[in-house]
Amino acid sequence: MLQLNPTTPTLRPRSRVPWRGLLMVGGLLLVARVFLYESLRVASGSMEPCLHGDPQHGDTIAILRHWWKLAPPERFDLVVFARSPDETRAGDEIVVKRVAALGGESVRIADGELWVREAGGTERRIVKRYHDFHSLLVPLWREPFDGAVLERLLPTSSDLVTSAGRALRLDGREAGASCRVRLASGFARYDDGWLAADGTRVEGRSEVADLLFAVEVALEDETAAVALHVRLGGTACAFVATPVGGEYRLTFDADGEGRLQGNAGTVSNGRTQRFEFFLIDGRVGAAIDGDVAFEAIFDRGRDVLLASHAIGAPELELRNGRGRLTAFEIWRDLHFTRPADAHYGLDEAFEVPEGALFVLGDASDQSIDSRYYGAITRSQLRGRPLATIAPARRRRWLW
Predict the structure, then answer these.
(1) Residue-wise pLDDT tens digits, 181-213
(2) Which of 138, 247, 271, 327 lies in the 20 to 30 Å Cα band around 208?
(3) Please, which residues have CB within 8 angstroms of residue 246's CB and are 6 or more apart in sequence?
(4) pTM of the prediction?
(5) CB atoms within 10 A of CB 112
(6) What span, in angstroms and rounded, lies between the C-alpha atoms of 305 and 234?
(7) β-bridge partners, 101
(8) Is 62 in contact with 96 (CB distance < 8 Å)?
(9) DSSP letters for 306-368
(10) Contact at 8 Å (CB) between 193 and 203?
């Protein structure tokens, strides 16, 4: 009987390149590219600072095509749409804006805000809650923590505040000590400008009163409390976060009189936590790491704040403990202007036809949008922006 030598190697078929599979994947990618996905370079600055626009160096965004056939656009969604070449300059036929009003509604702009009347309803000012406005916020100030930090964040007692790399060390352990830093008044400018991607400040033209103040602090003692002081409409106000039972109790005081309180976050020594205090759309509130403690109507009202021009420079205080301050920021809500040469939704409410949208640019003062050319139709929609894909330093999701 013939036996095979066990040491004889077994012959195996020659490996083949899986051309069929690769062609199938390539075909699927091509179909997705043609029917589902495309990219667009943002050519104008009408959506600053959300999207940087420039014909050669603007952001490149990924667009999900035909999305609106599955889900209709909602207020404040970003949309990409086509305009007729004879209505706009070359290169701007495909544009991106933000939805302000939907078909069947009437809309007008007053005091930087949107006033909307739904079909059969009464006109109301759009009031957003924390989780609605947070993704719409525009940066006004961000402390860079460079070598000149103590020229901008002014300590009330210099021996209790020291610079430490990309942070400030605050020591509020001494009884009766006031460990505070205040943003120099020259940097507390509340207008409809914004902080550009390179850190430079783009000045605005209109005063705003819808603001969020944010600080990031790594507390080193379980007893440490954080307070932010600011004058609102001539009233001395304070947001205070005090550790109670393993979490923070946040309160809002006006003229020393307690107004609001609620619990949020957890006490975690050594971990950086983000404290946010806001007055937006006439509502005052506070949150820690996105956990909202309270939101309520501010009885002074945003109209009073705008009339009094008296929102002061924010001041941070650390009590009963030590901590490292790693962020000090001011943000504003979207603010819409009333250009003299625009036509729609200004002096009189504009009726948005069924199946149409009223769209605005975030950089309102330099945007050509529905205030000039009226509503756009659903048939003009090209897709929904999914993400900024270039340049690399600005990559982020837009949805």
Answers:
(1) 999 999 999 999 999 888 899 999 999 989 999
(2) 327
(3) 266, 267
(4) 0.88
(5) 21
(6) 8
(7) 358
(8) no
(9) HHHT-----EEEEESSEEEEEEEEEEE-------TT--SSSSSPEEPPTTEEEEE-SSGGG--
(10) yes
